[in-house]
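Internal tracking record. Fields below are filled automatically when a chain is submitted to the structure queue. Please do not edit lines marked as system-generated. If the sequence contains nonstandard residues, flag them in the REMARKS field before resubmitting.
Queue: standard
Priority: normal
Entity type: single polypeptide chain
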Amino acid sequence: MGWLWAIIVGFVLGLIAKAIIPGKQHSPLWLTTIFGILGAIAGNAIARALGVAETRGIDWSRHAFQLVAAIIIVALGDAAYMALRGNRRQRA
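SYSTEM-GENERATED OUTPUT FOLLOWS
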């Protein structure tokens, strides 16, 4: 069940990150989901390091760290994807 939640949270975080980043992102949906999962993992690690990993009720600070990490990872990942994809198109 943990993997299912990771995929769902990664999917949602990736889509929210894509919506926040200005301009068009060209990475496919499966890659955006992976970037979202990585953002969730990085955000959890940052929250745990700062001591806000678990609070009473909804962990808004942890979710904020996850979203910021997902935005950064989606932006960098999309740039890397376009750099690789652009090079592949020039060769053809």
